[in-house]
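Example 3.2
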Amino acid sequence: MTDQLVQIKLAALWSGDLEKVLNLFCQCFLDDPFYTSSFPERETRSSRMRQAFRESIAYCLSTGLSLGMMDERGQLAAFLLCFDYSAARLEHPDLFRGIFGAQEGQPIPYNDQLHNHILRLNGNTLYLLSMAVAPEYRRMGLASGLIDTVIRSYPQFNLAGDVSNESSLSIYRERNFQVTDIYPGYYLILHSKSQKNSALSIGSQVKLAVPNTEFLSAHGIQFEILKARQLLVGYAAEEAFGLYYFRERAGSVASGVVVQLSYPMYLKFQRLINVSQYSELALGSCILYALNQDYTCKPLLNGNLEAILANRTTEWSLIPDVYISTPVQYLSHRPIQISREDSTANALIETLEFRTLCETGIPSQQAHVDDLSNIKARIKRHYLGKIQLQITDEVTQENYKGEIPLIGPPAFVDLYLALDQDSSCGVLTWYSLSSPFLLSHLLDNTIRNHLMVADGDKAVNFFDFISARFGLIKRGTPKSFVVIPKRKDCLTPEQIASLLVSETIYPDGESYGRLIDRDILSITEDSVGMGQYDRAFVCAHSNVVLQFSEELMGTISQRIADESITLFYIELILFEEAAIQIADQDIISLSTSITIHTPEEFLTQVDKINDDYSKTIDFWDIRVNYPTSQKSIAMLRTAFGIQERLEELKRNQEHLQTVFDIKCDIIDRADSKRMDTSLAVLSFLAVFSAWIDGYDYIATWNDTFSNHIIFILQRVLFVLVLITAGYAITHLFGNKLALMIRIRREKRRRKKKRKNRS
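Structure, written as tokens:
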């Protein structure tokens, strides 16, 4: 690497490094105002400094809370010494008083201004005794790197110190330290363990740390070098496919360059590296990207995409944040495969959790007070990890049975699942920030279910993949939420309309022509759109929500905080769509079932479908607190056609009722037929049994009647049995016989009528 100028390693210092630390300490602070006032004679100042601070420095080294930077010669390039404030104060009071310059019997200097501030902090505090950088290594980022390392390495501690060098205060302010003037020329610095490491906020210009500038130059990213040599503590610089990148690595120190970019160039850089593979970190006022997902192919262009971009410069200049959400049903009983933590995903989920609280109100401890407390307990969001998506050219009759051209190599995106724990409803969302995909082709692939996942050495359909991997079944239409950090007029109305209907934006001369649908164009030509504030133009149609927001400039965490508002509304609506589709599928399955159920069994299944749907839809059809939120949800429900889906569900429910009635009638008739047959058989057997018994009984009368009379009586009994049997059969089957006769007569009549007409 051309910018790798020095080899420096981070190491923990121990008691054996005492002389090295004392040497650098005296070298760096010999002419510091604090020490010149304490030791006026320069000839003896160094030896007196060594004598005065040997014990306190040795104490810091013995505690193991001290860091050093060693160069390739084994020389100490920098150090940071700190100690446990509470332990020193309670266990070593004499040493503690000496560190803060108190003579025996004297109070500790500036006690109220310094120590009372520290004692008010929650938890233990590391006190920064001293930090020094050798002159030849200054202004390379070593001091700020050591501070960042301590904050990362000891997140359970507060960090405090007193600083006499006013020019160094910017290092602490950039990291959210509270700076207090405690004494003339002295400042107290405090960093609470609950604080974030940086208060970074970017605008039209962005400071970026990169391993070198070769990648920027190769891809036409305009930049200005602010610092040619920047040493980054806790990072290593690596290379893959010709791209240099940083990776977090304890004990390492990477060399880099700090450049300044315009915000559009910053977005272009994010697209080219596929920012989904990186963690965005703030180092003071500078941004650094650390790789957390290895490259599997060269980013970002392939031949087909390069050919397409020759006619798509306007569309390719759009670098949007894209969220694709799909209502799903969770069928599997196995646990969701939760992925390892990801800083961006964690920030998005935390923001959505906070949005849930904001929109529904902070939960009360009493259920009868908080009628929306259920939503806060039932909804759970899980990060599912990264997958590689592949988009393709449009499927046509010519390429349907052949090989469909790929547009760009596979690119990583992130998945998260919002799940209702009391039902099988869920919303699966994948997102791509500073998306590396060609937008109109991405939306076209999404709506046509052509998205492919690179799974090992093969590509599979996206929804087949999530079904096999996570047990999630698509139950509705994917909804695309696209945030474009530009004004609406960056695209023509026809181009915006194409995106709204998930069509490819065709170049001039394409046979399909421009979209001229007046209903859709009227959405794009509206001067205000669906947005309720003038900071963005929002429009929606069918399955797409577009937001144009020129003022949306910020870090990734700042962007997702803004975008999560609309994403939260979409998530709620898709829970409703999932519930509708699940109930619809169950109704259709039951309606078309060929199994003959008893009325009780059928009714039980109908009740279960209705109960599950009612419970779920009542839950998700919440009333958010803000009137503007209520209006936003109402507008999105209209755009997504939720009411039409509800009406379709109602029709299917009515059809199910008809099927239920028919099935009951069929079952009743079948039962009646079986009953009639049983009665006929029983009647015949009963009559036959009566005849046999009567015949035998009459035969016993031979002592009273002659054989001739007995014979006549037996014949009379036989006639009566025949009459009784005939009556029973006629009663049981007479109506059916008459119906059969009427049907045959009707057929003969219609046949005769047709014959006469001919």
